[in-house]
């Protein structure tokens, strides 16, 4: 076989482009294309397999195999060599295909006389569309040049498919990409259900012309685009105070990528083979995405993400397509994104009905914002960006972490039934809004809500919460690009207090550091951030910010009671120290002539097991204590609350954990200090009644949980439940969920 030259490849691509421009249906085009490819590559066979649905590939056109097998031969994903290419996103190049592991013999195609096989994926930035195969009679391995040439052709086919070139005319109507229903199983980050239309945070770039006629012109365009990209990256990074450490290294790696010669060279090679500048960028991007899917090393994954991000920027420069495509947001928008920062999510605000992310984590700031906005959030929905198009119908089930894209009518209907049931339940809860959470024997539990944004406060009245049991002040810091000024914070806190209309608000001082890194804070290189330099530890070591925050709180609460609580207190001395700092600020503000709050209450968050064993004096010093169950549980069980592998492994109703909580309540009661529970578990009805039975008289939760928790408390006798718990503990049960739920079922 003669050496393939760049000019052959370019000629082939031009022929493909002519095929695309010529009249005729999709099937005719596919037939022509296989003919041109076989002819240009000097092979006896060229076949195109496309996805019929997410799991099945269908032979859609062939030159050389038996024509009657077209639209008849089908393979499952992963089946045979074709299925392997589709599943892995990697080529298979073999001189003796039948000897390859996984080879599947398809007698109806007559392929047995062609031992050599080269198959490449037809994919567009991670979205799998099908497989392109050439086969020949002589048993030989295809060369690197041939492989590269075929990948370029596959890339052009993918672009043509995206433009709809193969639509229509197939006898039995082959479903196209972005047509069929897809279900994604992700992870719940915020409960709730929503139905709406897809709104892509980063709309996909459309490449109108994948084939370049004049390589010199295309290279000049590419080089111009890259120069512009480099200068924006340089100025973007020089605007950042990189400080040092990890973040500086990451930024530097990003910059190096943007300046990479080999990246540019590979894209130029694509142009030499006949691609337009933007198609050459996308070809590299597609391959990086395919590698990303199989890369396990987190560092490598991050770098591949960098490359992906740079490719997107470059594509936008070359095509002139900005993020703002002029499309208007659909009604009931459901945001679909790879990941999103808290500030960006806040910008969308309450317009959104739900959020679906490919990445993200349960404890991420975006998740906290979604929680505050009370919109369902599903994370880890793999490949959703590749599948979703703006405006597609979508249903998000934040309760089970499932997303239905373009759902079939039966699925859609079942989903709507679930939504209707939930709406009905909410209606029922609304009727309880002004009633107390009093059990059958007359014990009342105060139900408070957690908040962190101004946007949360309207829920205070709507939910019937008696106050804000945890105001996470770090959100105001996380959503800014610089440290907020004291005046700004004071204004904000005053506004919060005004909106609370006299209901108490427990302000927790900053819980930042380690994983909750502020954009303007020098990141710390810590091996185990959750147990690292965070919260009060930062506050006491770097007192300036904590002082400023305390002053802002004092100024905001003129003439009103002020509740301050310090996060992550681990030993009594930390509380004493923080308490002293607050008293100093009060004295200072008074000296400066500022008006004082009417009352000051100082509390501690009990989030580490050690504090449960603090001296009695500690409990007596506190005006109130709030158990941060999210952290307390992760340290009690040594199970990272953000690690999907372990975070659900240990049950909150595990007897040992309940025994710890019981002891905490007893110690607080003995010292006569009010104790509340403000972790996520407080919002789960079964957990909530159990805590109440242990003696917690205040629970703080997300607003949407107040109704269901109140509903349950009002239907039980907490003393009886206490007995059930004690009996089960006496009997040696290691977990209380079964006795508690069985007892509840009998109520
Ligand atoms: C907790 O740890 O339970 C808590 C309420 O604090 P955060 O979730 O903000 O760490
Ligand atoms: Mg905590």
CATH homolog superfamily of the largest domain:
Phosphoenolpyruvate-binding domains
What is the annotated CATH architecture of the largest domain?
Answer: Alpha-Beta Barrel
**Major beta sheet, specifics?**
8 strands, mixed
Radius of gyration: 31 Å
- How many DSSP-defined strands? 23
Enumerate the strands of the largest sheet in spatial order, edge to edge or round the barrel.
Answer: 7-14-13-9-10-11-12-8
> Percent range for helical residues?
40-55%
Supply the number of structural domains: 4
Our estimate of the beta-strand percent is: 15-25%
pLDDT under 50 segments (min length 5)?
171-175, 240-246
CATH fold annotation of the largest domain: TIM Barrel
Bound ligands, each once: phosphoenolpyruvate, magnesium ion
Shape: elongated
| Mean pLDDT rating | 88
| Tally of individual helices | 27
Straight-line N-to-C gap: 82 Å
CATH class category of the largest domain: Alpha Beta
Structural class given helices, strands, pairing? alpha/beta
Description of the molecule:
This protein is of the alpha/beta class. It has 4 domains: 3-162, 2-Layer Sandwich (Beta-Lactamase); 182-203 and 328-407, Phosphohistidine domain (Glucose Oxidase, domain 1), CATH 3.50.30.10; 215-319, PtsI, HPr-binding domain (Enzyme I, Chain A, domain 2, Orthogonal Bundle), CATH 1.10.274; 438-746, Alpha-Beta Barrel (TIM Barrel). Helices cover 45% and strands 17% of the residues. Helix 24 (685-694) crosses helix 26. Magnesium ion (MG) binds next to helix 22. Phosphoenolpyruvate binds next to strand 17 and helix 22.
């Amino acid at each position: 076989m003669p050496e393939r030259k760049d000019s052959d490849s370019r000629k082939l691509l031009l022929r493909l482009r002519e095929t695309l421009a010529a009249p005729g249906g999709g099937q005719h085009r596919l037939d022509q294309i296989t003919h041109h490819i076989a002819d240009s590559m000097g092979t006896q066979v060229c076949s195109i397999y496309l996805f019929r649905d997410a799991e099945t590939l269908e032979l859609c056109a062939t030159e050389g195999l038996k024509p009657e097998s077209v639209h008849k031969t089908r393979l499952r994903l992963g089946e045979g060599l074709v299925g392997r290419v589709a599943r892995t996103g990697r080529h298979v190049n073999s001189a003796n295909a039948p000897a390859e592991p996984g080879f599947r013999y398809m007698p109806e195609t007559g392929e047995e006389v062609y031992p050599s096989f080269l198959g490449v994926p037809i994919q567009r930035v991670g979205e799998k569309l099908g497989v392109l195969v050439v086969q020949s009679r002589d048993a030989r391995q295809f060369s690197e040049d041939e492989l590269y040439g075929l990948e370029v052709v596959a890339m052009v086919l993918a672009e043509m498919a995206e433009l709809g070139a193969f639509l229509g005319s197939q006898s039995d109507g082959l479903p196209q990409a972005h047509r069929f229903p897809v279900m994604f199983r992700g992870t719940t980050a915020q409960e709730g259900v929503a139905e709406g239309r897809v709104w892509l945070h980063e709309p996909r770039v459309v490449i109108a012309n994948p084939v370049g006629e004049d390589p010199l012109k295309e290279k000049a365009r590419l080089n111009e685009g890259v120069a512009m990209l480099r200068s924006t990256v340089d100025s973007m990074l020089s605007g950042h105070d990189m400080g040092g450490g990890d973040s500086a290294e990451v930024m530097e790696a990003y910059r190096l990528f943007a300046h990479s010669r080999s990246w540019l060279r590979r894209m130029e090679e694509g142009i030499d083979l006949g691609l337009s500048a933007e198609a050459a960028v996308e070809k590299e991007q597609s391959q990086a995405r395919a590698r990303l899917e199989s890369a396990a090393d987190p560092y490598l994954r991050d770098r591949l993400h960098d490359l992906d991000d740079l490719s997107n920027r470059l594509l936008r420069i070359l095509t002139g397509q900005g993020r703002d495509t002029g499309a208007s947001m659909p009604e009931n928008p459901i945001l679909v994104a790879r990941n999103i920062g808290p500030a960006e999510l806040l910008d969308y605000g309450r317009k959104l009905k739900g959020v679906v992310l490919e990445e993200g984590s349960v404890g991420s700031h975006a998740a906290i914002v979604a929680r505050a906005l009370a919109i369902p959030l599903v994370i880890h929905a793999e490949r959703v960006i590749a599948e979703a198009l703006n405006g597609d119908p979508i249903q998000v089930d934040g309760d089970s972490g499932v997303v239905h894209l373009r759902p079939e009518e039966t699925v859609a209907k079942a989903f709507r039934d679930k939504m209707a049931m939930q709406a009905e339940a909410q209606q029922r809860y609304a009727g309880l809004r002004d009633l107390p959470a009093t059990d059958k024997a007359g014990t009342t539990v105060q139900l408070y809500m957690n908040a962190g944004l101004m946007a949360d406060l309207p829920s205070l009245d709507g939910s019937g919460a008696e106050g804000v049991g945890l105001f996470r002040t770090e959100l105001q810091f996380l959503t800014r690009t610089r440290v907020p000024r004291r005046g700004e914070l004071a204004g904000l806190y005053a506004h919060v207090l005004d909106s609370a209309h006299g209901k108490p608000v427990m302000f927790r001082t900053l819980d930042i550091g380690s994983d909750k890194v502020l954009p303007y804070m020098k990141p710390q290189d810590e091996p185990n951030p959750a147990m690292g330099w965070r919260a009060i530890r930062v506050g006491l070591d770097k007192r300036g910010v904590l002082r400023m925050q305390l002053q802002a709180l004092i100024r905001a609460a003129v003439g009103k009671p002020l509740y301050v609580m310090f996060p992550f207190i681990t030993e009594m001395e930390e509380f004493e120290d923080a308490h002293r700092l607050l008293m100093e600020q009060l004295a200072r503000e008074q000296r400066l002539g500022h008006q004082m709050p009417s009352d000051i209450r100082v509390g501690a968050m009990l989030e580490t097991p050690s504090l449960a064993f603090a001296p009695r004096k500690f409990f007596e010093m506190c005006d109130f204590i709030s158990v941060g169950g999210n952290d307390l549980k992760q340290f009690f069980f040594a199970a990272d609350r953000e690690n999907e592998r372990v975070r659900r492994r240990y049950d909150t109703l595990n007897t040992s954990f309940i025994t710890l909580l019981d002891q905490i309540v007893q110690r607080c009661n003995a010292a006569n200090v009010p104790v509340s529970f403000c972790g996520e578990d407080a919002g789960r009805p079964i957990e909530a009644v159990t805590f109440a039975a242990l003696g917690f008289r205040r629970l703080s939760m997300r607003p949407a949980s107040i109704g269901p928790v109140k509903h349950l408390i009002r239907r039980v006798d907490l003393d009886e439940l206490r007995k059930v718990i004690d009996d089960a503990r006496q009997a040696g049960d290691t977990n209380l969920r079964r006795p508690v739920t069985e007892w509840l079922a009998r109520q």
